[in-house]
């Protein structure tokens, strides 16, 4: 299998963490900047986005959620998404974390606009507020503290790692101090260390 990824991408990091956690071998990880519009990526994902997993028969899987569910089902006996089809609240919690990753990436895109005058204070504030509200909610619902490693925790670790990497100015630890403590432990996992964005 081939995984098109970038080390700054939080979606890619979730996939790379799962590959390591499940001990999946034979994945060729190909560092890819989606903005380069490389033919290899565009041929298999018309969206031009990463992560994209190409199976051994050539079939492409995207987006990250599809890849994560595939890996868990094929190699993990559904240990990470164990709630599938049974627990709609847990599904919504997963959507919340995924949506927060979207907000954090949208915030980066807003900040990367070429001309400063074109950056929107409205959208910047909206993404930041969603992040702070969402993390406070996760803190209050105790989502991070479940026994065993879940897909929620994996994606939450990648989300928080990405916020620290790209949005150090966002003072999320003030609204979610218990999550900050949780992250300081979680960051020591070998898979987290091995996939730290640079
Ligand atoms: N919903 C997608 C989002 C993937 C995504 O937006 N990836 C970014 C990198 S973090 C990307 O490839 N951006 C290129 C673009 O938007 O054209 C997923 O979960 O995989």
UniProtKB/TrEMBL annotation:
One example GO MF annotation: glutathione transferase activity
Pfam families tied to this protein: GST_N_2
Tree of life domain: Bacteria
Signal peptide as annotated in the record: none
InterPro entries: Glutathione-S-Trfase_C_sf, Glutathione_S-Trfase_N, GST_Omega/HSP26, Thioredoxin-like_sf
Enzyme Commission code(s) on record: 2.5.1.18
Keyword vocabulary terms for this entry: Transferase
Domain GST N-terminal: 1-79
GO CC annotations, alphabetized: cytoplasm
PANTHER family: GLUTATHIONE S-TRANSFERASE OMEGA, PTHR43968
Protein's recorded name: Glutathione S-transferase
Species per Swiss-Prot/TrEMBL record: Shewanella psychrophila
């Amino acid at each position: 299998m081939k995984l098109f990824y970038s080390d700054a991408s939080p979606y890619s990091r979730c996939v790379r963490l799962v590959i390591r956690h499940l001990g999946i071998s034979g994945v060729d990880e190909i560092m890819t900047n989606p903005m380069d519009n490389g033919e290899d990526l565009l041929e298999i994902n018309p969206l031009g986005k990463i992560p994209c997993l190409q199976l051994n028969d050539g079939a492409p899987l995207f987006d990250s959620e599809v890849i994560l569910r595939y890996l868990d089902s094929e190699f993990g006996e559904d240990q990470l998404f164990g709630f599938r089809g049974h627990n709609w609240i847990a599904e919504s919690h997963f959507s919340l974390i995924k949506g927060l990753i979207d907000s954090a990436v949208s915030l980066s895109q807003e900040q990367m606009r070429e001309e400063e005058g074109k950056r929107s204070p409205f959208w910047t504030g909206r993404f930041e507020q969603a992040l702070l509200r969402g993390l406070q909610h996760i803190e209050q619902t105790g989502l991070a503290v479940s026994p065993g490693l879940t897909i929620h925790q994996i994606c939450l670790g990648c989300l928080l790692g990405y916020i620290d990497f790209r949005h150090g100015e966002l003072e999320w630890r003030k609204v979610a101090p218990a999550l900050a403590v949780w992250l300081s432990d979680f960051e020591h996992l070998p898979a987290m260390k091995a996939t730290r964005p640079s």
